Amino acid sequence: MKVTKNIYTKLLNCPRVPPECGGIIGSEHGDVITHVVFDKGCLSDAGIMYIPNTQFLNQTIAEWEKSGIKFRGIFHIHTPQWAELSNEDRVYIIDILKAMPASIKFLYFPLVFPGIQIKNYIAQKIGNVIDIVDDDIEVIRKEEESQNEKNK
User: Fold this and answer.
1) In sequence order, what are the residues at sequence separation of 6 or more whose Cβ sits closer than 8 angstroms to the Cβ of residue 121?
2) Phi and psi based region of residue 80 (left: phi greater than 0; alpha: psi -120 to 50; beta: remaining)
C-alpha cells in the first residue's frame, strides 16, 4: 500500500485504546491513499472492540464516489500486545470483501498501533477464495505523489 505522509501521520496519531476506533481510507487519481475518515464506531458491551458505524461509513463512501475518491479499505487500532488480526477481524474482512461489487478485487486493512507503527494487510479475491496477507507500506511525500500522477 502506498500512502501519503500526511495520511500516514494522521493514522499514527489515532488515540490509544481502549476503546478501539477505526475508519476508512481512499485514493484519488491513482492508487496512493490520500483520504481518511475516522469513525468512533458503535459502542460494544465490552467497550474495547471497534464496531464500525456502517451507516456513517457507507454514506461517506457514497459521497467519495461522487467526488472521484475510491474506497480502498478499512483500518482500526490495536494495542501492541494484539500484534495481528484477530479471528473476528479475519471473518469480518472476508464478509466485507464478499459484499463488495465484482469490480473491487482487493481492499487494504491496516492495523494501527497509535504512536508506534502501522501494519497493513491486503485482502484479495482470487476466484471464490479471499486471501488475506501482510502487505508492505510505502510512505509517499506529496511531491512524489504529484510526480507519479504526471507520469501516468
Assistant:
1) 85, 93, 108, 109, 110, 111, 132, 133, 134, 135
2) alpha
pLDDT in tens, 43-67: 554 556 677 888 999 999 999 999 9
Question: Total structural domains in the chain?
Answer: 1
101 preceded by a cis bond (ω within 30 of 0): no
Residue 35 three-state SS: strand
Residue 146 belongs to domain with CATH number:
3.40.140.10
At which residue does the C-alpha cell 482470487 appear? 126
Q: Is 16 in contact with 115 (CB distance < 8 Å)?
A: yes
**Domain span at 52:** 2-150
Model pLDDT for residues 104-121, shown as the tens digit of each residue:
999 999 999 999 999 999
SS3 10: helix
